[in-house]
C-alpha cells in the first residue's frame, strides 16, 4: 500500500481546551482506536449516501455559487492537470491499489460537508507541524472530491510561497499567481486557473522575492479571501507548516477553519501539541492522521472523526 496514505482519520480537539492549554496527544490519537470498531468501516461505506442526503437542502445555494463562479471566471486561463504520477491525484483516476485511500478522501469530504451545513464556513486552511507530512497531497485530493459534487465550485490555493509544492504537483503553471495578487495587485481572474476537472480551480503560488510573511500581513490577502469565499462554494488553502514560521498564523487569520495533518511514526507528539495550542480552538475542524497501518479485516480504511465546528 502506498507510503502516502495508508489511512486517513480525523479527530476533534476538545472544545473546552483554551488555545494555550497542554494537549494530551497520546489520548487524542489513541481515541481513534477506541472508536474504530464501532463506526469506522460504516463511515467509509455510507459516506456517499450521507453526502447526497446532506446536499439536498443546499442544492439551491450550490446552483447560485456555481453561477457566480462561472460569471467571475469566464475569461480565466485553463490548464490540464498532469497524470504522470499515479499516486498523486488518487481520486481523479482509477487505481485499484489505492481505492482504500480514495474512500478515505471521500469520507473526509463528507465529514467536512456535514460541518459546512452547520456553520456555513467556506474556507479551510490545511497545515502540519513540518514538511513531508502529506498536507499538500491531502488538500489536492480533497479538492478533487469536493469538485465531484455537482454545482460545487472549489478553489485550491497554494499559499506556501516558500516551497510551492501544490503548484509543482499541478504541473507548475506559469505565473501570475497568489504572489502577484499580494505584491502587485494582479487581477484575480488572470491568476486563478480553471482545470480540466469540472468545478476545480487552482491558484498557483506565483513568483516573488519578497518575504511571504510580509505579503500575508497586508490587506490584499484578506480582500482576496473575501472575494474567493463569495465566488466558490469551498476554498481550500495549502499553508506552510505552522511551527517556526509566521506565515501560517497570518494566513489562518483570514480563513474560517483549520485542519492539521499529522503523519504516523513521524510527527512528534510534542510538535502536534504545539500546533494545536497555537490555533484558535474555535477554528479547529480536525486532525488527519496520515500513513497509519492498514487494518487487515477489509480493504477499506478505518476512519473515525470527532471533528466539530
Task: Itemize the secondary structure elements and their pairings.
Blueprint: E1 10-11, H1 25-55, H2 59-72, E2 77-79, H3 99-119, E3 123-128, H4 135-147, E4 154-158, H5 165-169, H6 178-184, H7 188-191, E5 193-195, E6 200-203, H8 212-216, H9 219-231, E7 234-238, H10 247-252, E8 257-263, H11 269-278, E9 284-290
Parallel strand pairs: 2-5, 3-7, 3-8, 4-6, 4-7, 8-9
Antiparallel strand pairs: 1-9, 5-6
Helix pairs in contact: 1-3, 3-4
How would you describe what is shown here?
- The protein has 309 residues and is an alpha/beta fold.
- The chain has a single domain (10-290), classed as Rossmann fold (3-Layer(aba) Sandwich).
- The protein has eleven helices and nine strands.
- It has helices at 25-55, 59-72, 99-119, 135-147, 165-169, 178-184, 188-191, 212-216, 219-231, 247-252, 269-278; strands spanning 10-11, 77-79, 123-128, 154-158, 193-195, 200-203, 234-238, 257-263, 284-290.
- The protein has a nine-stranded mixed sheet with strand order 1-9-8-3-7-4-6-5-2, sandwiched between helices.
- Strand 8 (257-263), helix 11 (269-278) and strand 9 form a beta-alpha-beta unit.
- Helix 1 packs across helix 3 (99-119) and helix 3 packs across helix 4 (135-147).
- It starts with 9 loop residues before the first strand and ends in a 19-residue tail after the last strand.
- Mean pLDDT is 77; it is low at 1-26, 28-46 and 296-309.
Amino acid at each position: 500500500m502506498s507510503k502516502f496514505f495508508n489511512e486517513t482519520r480525523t479527530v476533534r480537539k476538545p472544545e473546552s481546551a483554551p488555545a494555550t492549554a497542554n494537549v494530551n496527544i497520546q489520548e487524542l490519537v489513541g481515541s481513534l482506536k477506541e472508536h474504530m470498531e464501532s463506526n469506522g468501516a460504516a463511515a467509509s461505506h455510507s459516506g456517499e449516501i450521507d453526502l447526497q442526503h446532506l446536499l439536498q437542502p443546499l442544492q439551491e445555494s450550490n446552483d447560485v455559487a456555481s453561477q457566480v463562479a462561472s460569471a467571475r471566471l469566464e475569461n480565466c486561463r485553463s490548464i490540464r492537470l498532469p497524470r504522470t504520477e499515479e499516486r498523486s491525484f488518487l481520486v481523479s483516476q482509477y487505481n485499484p491499489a489505492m481505492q482504500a485511500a480514495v474512500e478515505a478522501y471521500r469520507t473526509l469530504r463528507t465529514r467536512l460537508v456535514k460541518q459546512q451545513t452547520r456553520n456555513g464556513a467556506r474556507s479551510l486552511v490545511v497545515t502540519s507541524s513540518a514538511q513531508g507530512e502529506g498536507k499538500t497531497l491531502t488538500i489536492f485530493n480533497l479538492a478533487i472530491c469536493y469538485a465531484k459534487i455537482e454545482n460545487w465550485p472549489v478553489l485550491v490555493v497554494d499559499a506556501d510561497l516558500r516551497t510551492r509544492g501544490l503548484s509543482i504537483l499541478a504541473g507548475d503553471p506559469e505565473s501570475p499567481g497568489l504572489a502577484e495578487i499580494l505584491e502587485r495587485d494582479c487581477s484575480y481572474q488572470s491568476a486563478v486557473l480553471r482545470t480540466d476537472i469540472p468545478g476545480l480551480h487552482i491558484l498557483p503560488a506565483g513568483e516573488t522575492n519578497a518575504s511571504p510573511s510580509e505579503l500575508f500581513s497586508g490587506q490584499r490577502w484578506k480582500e482576496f479571501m473575501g472575494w474567493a469565499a463569495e465566488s466558490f462554494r469551498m476554498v481550500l488553502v495549502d499553508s506552510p507548516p505552522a511551527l517556526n514560521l509566521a506565515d501560517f498564523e497570518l494566513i489562518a487569520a483570514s480563513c474560517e477553519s483549520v485542519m492539521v495533518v499529522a503523519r504516523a511514526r513521524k510527527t512528534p507528539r510534542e510538535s502536534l501539541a504545539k500546533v494545536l495550542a497555537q490555533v484558535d480552538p474555535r477554528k479547529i475542524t480536525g486532525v488527519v492522521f496520515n500513513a497509519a497501518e492498514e487494518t487487515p479485516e477489509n480493504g477499506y480504511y478505518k476512519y473515525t472523526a470527532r471533528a466539530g465546528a
